[in-house]
Specification:
Length: about 70
């Protein structure tokens, strides 16, 4: 509850200085990320309903068998 005002100093400003962007550029970048994430929710939900949790979890043996078969 009280951490929300500190999100800017913890997340926003370090990312902005690390990427060397101004406020407008970082806002545009985060907007594009949000839009792409929103579009990714629809196929992600469909895939989660279509396949079982065993097949979709990150398991090295499953990936090896999937690649080599």
């Amino acid at each position: 509850m009280y951490g929300l005002p500190y999100m800017k100093s913890v997340f926003y400003e370090p990312m902005r200085t690390a990427l060397d962007l101004n406020h407008t550029q970082l806002g545009n970048l985060l907007s594009i990320y949000g839009f792409v994430a929103l579009l990714g929710y629809f196929p992600g939900g469909w895939l989660a309903d279509k396949f079982s949790a065993f097949k979709t979890r990150n398991h090295p043996r499953y990936h090896r068998d999937f690649i080599w078969k």
